[in-house]
Amino acid sequence: MLGSSSTEGTDRGQAYTLEGFIGAMVVLMAVLLALQSVVIMPTTSGTADRAVQNQLQQETKDALVVAAQDGGLSETIRSWDEDANDGEGGFHNASQPGPDGERTYDVGSFANQSTLGEILESRFAEKGHSYNVELVANDGEEFNATRMVYQGSAPPDAFTASYTVTLFEDDILTAPENRDQQIELKDEDGNVHDDEEYEYPIAPAEGSDGPVYTVVEVRVTVW
Question: Transmembrane segments in this chain: where (predicted)?
């Protein structure tokens, strides 16, 4: 009888030990599953992606604001060389073919030409992002976009930031070859020339008879 009681006690102890081990394994598996759900769920739901996009969009807005200081953004969009591209005109030192035959900047040349390009290159291009830069203005009939940087068609999940710049009729072009040329080509009496060979790509706003030439939206799309 004594031997039987001792055996029962030993079996009961082993059973408790086994139950404790199984219980510990269950708790450990639950913790592992919980940790995996914390990592996976935000990515799956898109919360992390939206947070990253919001941050990048804010940085794009900040880049435009910094570039606009002291008129720098206005100077960038007035860097038009009427003799470039075999006399067809183009932005100064822009040599990348655009989708419609125009000349646009590549990432490196735009960085060399402007503060905006320098910021976009260091913040986005060097980290694998692509971007387009467009100048959008209304000529009184429709909105027209002039490409400065074109890296392809933006996907649906791309984000856009913009900054508006006012151009004035007496603003001059900033390309080295045209630094004495106003946006609107005028004669000595102040009348606008009807010269088809000269055409700044951003048309004046319809009916603008004051000092304002037009308002331009500098639009940056990043993906």
Answer: 20-40
Is 90 exceeded by the pLDDT of residue 50? no
> Which CB contacts under 8 angstroms, 24+ apart, belong to 95-98?
96/150, 98/147, 98/150
1 exposed, middle or buried (CB, 10 Å; 0-12, 13-18, 19+)? exposed
Considering only residues 186 and 58, tell me which one the structure prediction assigns the higher pLDDT: 58
At residue 153, what is the residue type? S
- Give residue 39's pLDDT band: very low, low, confident or very high (50, 70, 90): very low
Alpha-carbon separation of residue 197 from 89, 98, 139, 166, 200 (angstroms): 9, 21, 19, 25, 10
- Return the closest-CA partner of residue 216 out of 144, 125, 159, 109: 144
Query: Residue 126 and residue 121: Cα distance in Å, rounded?
Result: 6
Q: Where do the domains of the chain lie?
A: 1-45, 49-222
Distance CA 40, CA 142 (A): 46
- Tokens 């910021």 appear where? 119
124, 222 contact by CB (below 8 A): yes
Tell me, what's the pLDDT at 123?
94
What tokens were used for 157?
């999940």
Report whether 139 contacts 206 (CB < 8 A): yes
